[in-house]
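Review session, final week

We close the course with one last complete record, chosen because it touches almost every idea we covered. It is Exodeoxyribonuclease 7 large subunit, a protein from Malaciobacter halophilus with 395 residues. Go through it on your own first, then we will talk.
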Amino acid sequence: MNAPLTVTSLNTQIKSLLETTFLEVYVEGEISNLTYHSSGHIYFSIKDDKSIISCVMFRGNSKYLKFKLEVGQKINIRGNLTVYTPRGSYQLICSRIEPSGQGALALAYEQLKKKLQEKGYFDSRIKKTLPKYPKKIALVTSPTGAAIEDMKKVATNRWPLVEFILVPTLVQGETAKTDIVNSIHYADSLACDIMIVGRGGGSIEDLWAFNEEIVANAIFKATTPIISAVGHEVDFLISDFVADVRAATPSNAIEIALPDINEHRIYMDNLQQEFENRFKNIIFTKHQNLLHLKRMYEQNSIESKFNLISAEIKMLKQSFDNSFANILNSFENNLKMLKNSFELSNPKNKDKKGFVQLSKDEKIVDLETLKVQDIVSLQTPKYIATAKIEAIKKQ
């Protein structure tokens, strides 16, 4: 397992990734939290109705600023993103700032955008959903531009099963807007799954045909789901807002429109592996169930019961034999004890020279209990003598 990153290392990596990814951004927003620092740097934030981002314009660039920034002012910024590593916060480093809405094209853009938004052209609820596996895609773009080659290359690597229909279209110049509209109408009649309308990057003047109202109307009225893919990431055209999906670039449009065949290969491999694992688990479970049933059958079979009863009979017989042997041994021991006791009590065994049994009135007594004139019997195993006590003397 890899060692965890330090906070500094993580922030440094984020800084490197952010700064190399967003080499230049073009952002519009309203000024807030404005501070003119004594060093000549300008610190502020720009915001829209949902988000805010910190900005700074250093003295080297701020001295070329032609107007004074004010809170609430709407501006356009060109710059790059950076991360302040000690705090882990990111900010926009401004290289150029212009008042928003200045110029005929910018004003026309804002006016048309507002008009179409009020008409509901941008409503997400009416956006058409792209099919997951398109079979045929119409490309409304220039046949000679770099965009078409980029799209073909991405499609070949991503999902070669799709069919493309190129609708050659002028994408720049005075007549471009009309040609784009006609191409959209034609592509819409081809019953394709998706239509991609776009071109490669260029200046605002080069891209302006996609900001025309008649192009927006054609996109809005088309029945085929449309992806708008005009210019670069920083370029936002009216066609982007009206289309069902906006792509940052023509290549990105192909990535959005087509599934990734490699992901599906991995998915299929995972499905196969999961199937094999589940199949093995099922087989294993069934095998264990069979073994359990077999053991149950063996335990409850007639042979098993007979063996059990036979074992119980043997055990009872053995218990009987042991009990009977114990009883015999007990009787034998008792007999031996009685015999020993008898042998010990047998008068014949007590017949020793000089020893007799003393009794009085047919009861064995001790010599100490006798009195003078008592009549006693002196007995050996063979003889009995009667005597009279003449005297008793204590030794």
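Two points worth writing down before the exam:
The longest strand covers residues 25-36.
DSSP finds eleven helices and 14 strands in the chain.
Good luck, everyone.
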